[in-house]
Amino acid sequence: MKKPCHIHSLLAWWLAILGGVGYAEAHDVGLSTASFQWRTNQLAATLTFSVRDTEAIVPLDANRDGTVSPDEFIRGRDALATAIATNCLVQFDGVPVDPDEVQCQLDSSNNVDVALSFPNPEFKELNLDFPVIRWLTSGHRMYFSLRDAIGQPIAERLLNQDVTRVVVEFDTGGSAAGTGTGHAPTPSFAGFLKLGVEHILTGYDHLLFLFALLIVTRNFLSALQVITCFTVAHSITLGVATFDLVHVSSRIVEPLIAVTILYVGLENVWKHGDPHGRWLLTFTFGLIHGFGFASVLREMGIGAQAGGVVMPLLAFNLGVELGQIAVAAVVLPLIWRLRKRESFLRYGVPACSVLVALAGAYWLVQRVWF
């Protein structure tokens, strides 16, 4: 009797942690983008931040409803533009250069775009520093890209609060035709790979959905089927959404992700843990979760217009899969061990599924009405 009680206590402890974490705000990733490109006689830059992130610089959302109205934006626009421009430092051959034009606007996705333009003299070294990153929440990342006049990439980096500088050295004088080599400690592929792993490990809604699917799997084959269907589905929508072939607002996607969690939890109860036909359900709901993953890259400005989308997309998706496999490798042995006990099948699976459904219902209410 002591051994089953110990195992059930271990499960209860694990679920308590997962449940407590599950009620935290999901997708608090902290992402922005800094896109630089040569134009005629100038270096043009666009820095894009989510409204949530700009609150740490200059608060715009006066009524705290998660959306910045046109009036709210107009009231804080100039102060925000100034704060960001003064914390985006540009040097040509070590000489600081101020922007000769600064524009700030709210885009269709409720993100803030700050456009800067710098005069374009001849130079051999471009030194950029973005101390504005340190103003933002812990763990914030900025995707930096520099492109020539025809949109070809010169340098791409994933910056963070410890690495805010990029140095680009040119083979010839800095110009639209010049080619350069950037220096930064964080390689782009490894950075996006790590971002994908971190996103799935802190994407508590995605993890809870996956847990609800896996808790009724009976063997390795059924678990493999679930994981494969989920992977293929979210990879499809992650790709099409990032390439901007299909665009679905996060205001629709996030509540739908909550619905998938609520539904799977309830289905586990009313089907008494029977996973028959789950591959189709997993694939369908995986398509929805893929749009959620895509929102991470879109918040960084990575899409068809940003260029260089293949590498970030591949690395991020690979990171998501590695994180997913790591979670499954830890959870599945525990689930299969517990499923050998009749008491767990009768009481444990329904109890876990109810907790999952409650978390899904909480997120649904939170994302629709708050």
Structural notes for this entry:
Helix 6 packs antiparallel against helix 9 and helix 7 runs antiparallel to helix 8. This protein has two domains: 193 residues; 156 residues, no CATH class. The radius of gyration is 23 Å and the shape is elongated. With 370 residues, it is α+β, with helices and mostly antiparallel strands. It contains ten helices and eleven strands. 39% of the residues are buried.
Mean pLDDT: 80
Read across the widest sheet, the strand sequence of neighbours is: 5-6-2-1-8-9
Which value, in Å, is the CA radius of gyration? 23 Å
Fraction in beta strands: 15-25%
Structural class: alpha+beta
Number of individual domains: 2
Q: Span between N and C termini?
A: 46 Å
How many strands, what sense, and barrel or not for the largest sheet? 6 strands, mixed
Please count the helical segments: 10
Number of strands: 11
Shape annotation: elongated
Helix content: 40-55%
Low-confidence stretches: 1-27, 175-187
Q: Helix and strand succession? A: HEEHHEEEEEEEEEHHHHHHH
